[in-house]
Structure formats: C-alpha cells, structure tokens
C-alpha cells in the first residue's frame, strides 16, 4: 500500500505530547517508543490481534510505520486506520503483508456535513448501503451517527 496521509489534527488522543515536543526532547527515542506502544495498544483494543504487529512512531515526520503480517486485507486496512486516525499522526507507512489477499478498499476523508448515507450514495449510488461502510469500519465506529470531520474511512468493494 505504501504511504497513506491522514488529517493530523483529527482522531483519538493517545499521544501524551505533541510530535514537535517529542522531536526536541532529550529522551526522544523513549517518547517515540511510548507513542508507538500507545498506538499498538489502541489497535488491540479494537479487537485486532497485535502479536505479529510492529508499530513505530517518528515524531519528526509525525508518521507511524506498521509492519508485520495481517491475516486478511480487511484487517490490514483496519490496522492502518487505527494508526492514522490518531491525533498528531500525519502519515502511515504501510509495510504490512497479508496472508489472504483480497481487493483493496477505497479511502474517504470525512468532511463537515457528511453522514454514512451520503458517503454510500457517492460510492455505491445508493444511500441505503451505508451499513456496508459502517461494518467495514467497526469496531472503530461505534454508531452510524458518530463520524467526525478529518476521520478516514474504509469504503469496501461491494460483494
């Protein structure tokens, strides 16, 4: 997949310091490792097995690198979303492989005024197929009504 960009000022507040503070700190490596651990823990709280997953955070570039093998394409994409939908993360370097290949999803950046029905109409031509987007982004999405500007969503191909 390569490099995927995210909105730096949107997402889960997991990092204890701003990236520029971390980059200037004398213990930068320790703080970057703590940030990487917080992100990996967050991925795990979303029901994703993190045993073969390596996460690294680079404060200077506000980027996360995810490495390892995901069991399937959907899990790979959810890992990337978890890593990128974190406040102060600008980019995710996707170095993940998959055990079971499948078609990749499209990506969508939520803007003010969006809802899943509107996004569904744009991608599928039918606002009533919003449930496919919701299911593809669970468990990060807890409700069809709880999306926010700057959030990146997976838009899976319809089966």
* Helix content estimate: 25-40%
Number of helices: 5
Give the overall average pLDDT. 92
- Across the major sheet, the strand order is 1-4-3-2
Question: How would you describe the shape?
Answer: globular
Instruction: Summarize the helix and strand pattern as letters.
Output: EHHEEHEEHHE
The helix-and-strand class reads alpha+beta
Give Rg in angstroms: 16 Å
- Content of β-strand: 15-25%
**How far do the termini sit from each other?**
21 Å
Task: Give structural notes.
The structure is a single chain. The strands form two sheets. A four-stranded mixed β-sheet has the order 1-4-3-2. Helix 2 (28-45) packs across helix 3 (73-84) and helix 4 (116-124) crosses helix 5 (130-136). It is globular and about 55 Å long. It has helices at 19-24, 28-45, 73-84, 116-124, 130-136, and strands at 2-5, 53-58, 63-72, 91-100, 106-109, 152-155. Strand 3, helix 3 (73-84) and strand 4 (91-100) form a beta-alpha-beta unit. It is built from five helices and six strands. It is 33% helix and 24% strand. The mean pLDDT is 92. The chain has 159 residues and is of the alpha+beta class.
